[in-house]
Design brief:
Layout: E1 4-10, H1 18-29, E2 36-42, H2 46-50, E3 54-56, H3 62-67, H4 90-102, E4 105-112, H5 114-124, H6 126-130, E5 135-140, H7 156-177, E6 184-189, H8 196-201, E7 214-216, H9 224-238, E8 241-246, E9 259-263, E10 269-271, H10 275-286, E11 290-294, H11 296-301, H12 308-326, E12 332-341, E13 344-352, H13 353-356, H14 377-383, E14 395-396, E15 399-400
Parallel strand pairs: 1-2, 1-4, 4-5, 6-8, 6-11, 7-8
Antiparallel strand pairs: 2-3, 9-10, 12-13, 14-15
Length: 422
């Protein structure tokens, strides 16, 4: 059989290490010239496939591809776009087949979180539903760490490291000024329904007096009275109070504290800033001087302080995706399997996309302290290896020297255009 071309795309919110996955995939694909021809990247995710906007990765140098390992963000562009069901929008699937046929694409690799794995699963069914066989591999990526089956999600370990480092440094700052200035600091982190990122901040608190003193999880209903009592206790005992709050914190009615009333492209409720809401609750009760910060894109873009474990795992799932595909596997996703926590050992396994799509893994209650404001030793044991090790990018003129690809477009072969409906 002649080798088939491959399609690779990045989806959803990008991370500090998603390009390391691309690096692993592209470098591994080159080792199978008898099975994989060219690897085309979708410009801006699955939208690139629908609009026939493909990137010829073979036009990049080996050095540029290798540099992806230490470059953050999505090198080919990402998107928030979810394929509807076949019965809802058959035209999207027919268009995918049209593009795949035109460019002789027999492999589909989609790098993203829960919604993206749903897309991967739907594409994997093209052979059964519309008669176009394609090897389809979903590749895990999400800073939220909420994909099931895999022990952790590439992208999470580096965000966890950034958050733990940042809250430790900010806590040192606040402590030094607390006598005459700021007494309460609130750091808002990502995490819509799962508090893994917020929990990671708890790694900074190695002794009782260390910040963060309070973590507000999406999994624990926010109780203002209980919270204020804890703030009062910390300020009186330690001189200050350092707090981490997840963007997905909910009130007693089960509503997001920071709900902005709008929705994103995936249909999720758009969240506003919860940190200032929490800060005002503290101010109204105690009148303390406070500061708050929203980590926002900084936490997921911080390649300069990425976890070595995370980088290695991100590369490994990209490599495994190609190996699965050329071995004839389809409708699966490579996963991280933890073999041991002390010492930390892991390997690559696989999960069926049908078991991954649209399933969300939240923090188990045994990882959250009894009072609901901290992490347990079991949680610490789970999280600690994921932030371990440093993998610094090269620096030039005092700044990280990241790569920007040429992203040469593949000539279009289809006469028809396709309008993507948002």
């Amino acid at each position: 059989m002649m080798p088939k071309n491959a399609f690779y795309a990045q989806s959803g919110g990008v991370t500090a290490v998603i390009n390391a996955t691309a690096c692993g995939l592209l470098e591994t694909a080159q080792q199978y010239p008898d099975k994989i021809g060219k690897v085309y990247a979708g410009r801006n995710g699955i939208i690139g496939a629908l609009t026939e906007d493909l990137i010829d990765t073979s036009q990049e140098s080996a050095e540029a591809i290798a540099a992806l390992r230490y470059t953050p963000s999505g090198a080919f562009g990402s998107c928030r776009f979810k394929l509807k069901g076949l019965e809802q929008n058959k035209a999207e699937y027919e268009r995918l087949i049209e593009v795949f046929k035109a460019h002789d694409i027999g492999y589909f690799f989609y790098n993203g979180g829960g919604d993206s794995q749903d897309t991967s699963y739907k594409v994997s069914q093209l052979g059964d539903t519309l008669g176009y066989p394609i090897m389809c591999i979903g590749i895990p990526k999400t800073v939220d760490n909420d994909l099931p089956i895999t022990d952790t999600c590439p992208g999470f370990g580096s965000v966890a490291k950034y958050v733990a480092v940042s809250i430790r440094e900010a806590s040192f700052d606040v402590l030094s000024m607390a006598k005459t200035s700021t007494k309460v600091f609130i750091m808002e982190v990502m995490g819509r329904h799962a508090g893994w990122i917020a929990a990671a901040g708890g790694l900074a608190a190695e002794k009782e007096s260390d910040g963060p003193h309070i973590i507000i999880f999406p999994e624990v209903i926010f109780d203002p009275e209980k919270f204020l009592a804890k703030v009062d206790f910390c300020v009186k005992k330690y001189g200050y109070c350092s707090i981490i709050v997840s963007e997905g914190a909910k009130n007693q009615d089960g509503k997001f504290i920071s709900e902005a009333g709008t929705r994103d492209a995936f249909g999720h409720v758009q969240l506003g800033g919860v940190a200032p809401v929490i800060a005002n609750i503290v101010k109204d009760k105690f009148g303390y001087k406070y500061h708050w910060a929203v980590a926002d894109y900084l936490q997921r873009a911080a390649r300069h302080i990425a976890s070595k474990t995370d980088v290695e795992q991100a590369y490994a799932v990209g490599k495994a995706a190609v190996e699965f595909a050329v071995a004839g596997k389809t409708a699966v996703m490579p996963v991280i399997v933890r073999k041991s926590s002390q010492p930390y050992q892991w390997e690559i396994g696989s999960a069926n996309l049908a078991d991954v799509a649209n399933v969300e893994k939240k923090m188990p209650r045994e990882f959250i302290s009894e009072d609901g404001f901290g992490i347990t030793p079991a949680c610490r044991e789970y999280l600690q290896p994921l932030i371990a090790g440093e993998d610094y990018p090269p620096y030039k003129n005092g700044l990280p020297d990241y790569v920007e690809l040429k992203n040469v477009a593949v000539p279009k072969k289809l006469a028809t255009m396709f309008e993507v409906k948002k």
